[in-house]
Amino acid sequence: MKFIVDAQLPRRLAYEIAAMGEDAIHTLDLPARNLSTDSVITRLAVQEQRVVITKDSDFVDSFLLKGEPPKLLFITTGNITNNDLIHLLRANWNELTVMLSQGDYVELSRSSLTLHM
Question: At a CB cut-off of 8 Å and minimum separation 6, what does 23 contact?
Fold first, then answer.
C-alpha cells in the first residue's frame, strides 16, 4: 500500500510507515513542500494510488462529495504528541491496513478505529 502524509502531521509518521515496509511520502517531499494544495495532494493520490493520511476535514468533505482522494485515513486524535501518535498508529497498524483493503475511508481516534462504509 502507498501513503501520502499531509502537512499538519509529522514527517516522522511517513518514516515510521516506511519502516513498516510500506511506500510513504510526506508533503515535504513534494515540490511545493507543505504549501502543496489539497488538489495537488489528491491528484497525486489518484495517480499513484496513495492513501491520504490527514487531520484536515476538507479531505473528508471531498471524499464524501467527489470520492477523492480514493482512499483516506482521517486522524481524529486532537492534540497528541508525535510519540503518542506513532505509538497509536503502530498499535493499530495491522487492523488499519485490513480496513483500508476492505474500504476507502478509515478514521483513527485515540480510542477507536472505524471503517466508514
Answer: 1, 2, 3, 50
Whether the Cβ atoms of residue 40 and residue 62 lie closer than 8 Å to each other: no
Helices (H), ranges, 1-81: 11-19, 38-48, 57-66
Q: Model pTM?
A: 0.96
The answer to whether 70 and 49 are in contact (CB under 8 A) is yes
Backbone angles phi, psi at 59, to 5 degrees: -70, -35
Q: Provide the domain count of the chain.
A: 1
Q: Which domain holds residue 8?
A: 2-116
How does pLDDT run across 72-98, given as a tens digit for each residue?
A: 999 999 999 999 999 999 999 999 999
Position of cell 510519540?
A: 83
